[in-house]
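Please check this chain.
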Amino acid sequence: MKELRYDPLNIVICGIGGQGNVLASEVVASTMNDLGYRVAVGETYGASQRGGSVMSHVRVSKDLDMGVLISAGEAHFIIGFEPLETLRIARQYAGPQTRIIYDPRPIYPQGVLRGTQTYPDLAALRAEIRSLGAEAHEVPAADIAMACGDSRAANIALLGAFSRLPGAPLDETALSAVLQQRFQGTVLEMNEKVFAMGCAAMDEKGR
């Protein structure tokens, strides 16, 4: 069993309804459970069917019984599927120890598309995200997934990148085993390719 850097370990996964962040939290939780840890998962939904906010709390411990919700400022990792959602969550849950990994590709709300609302300046948004934790990494997960033929697999790309972060409790072997449980045939092959490209995106940053 891989030792946890923090116990309990707190992970927040956030994004927009339909991006697959709930599946990502399930994959993380299943992988940690298979490795012998205790896992607690809590989820909150906005108007998820209409592109509202979706957030999952995943808490992991070797032997502690935990509540499902993470306290403000106590996330060790934030995995974000959309930059504005990542910023919103980081403002509440990030602390000096937090490592943030997110897709910088914005998804514009209907109000922005209609011209009745304004999306924040992206450069300022990204700069604030970088200021809120120990480190922040941008991974073009949606672009990776689309290059492999299915934009819905962006969640798998982000999980690959996440597995490369210092202190991440998962490794490629454990996550790949869970993917093999969930997918078959060409879908499995595509997800494994996306996962490997997510890993490679983080490896490239370290060079």
Observations:
- The chain has one domain: 9-205.
- Residues 185-205 form the longest helix (21 residues).
- Strands lie at 9-16, 38-45, 53-61, 77-80, 99-102, 135-138.
- The chain is about 45% helix and 20% strand.
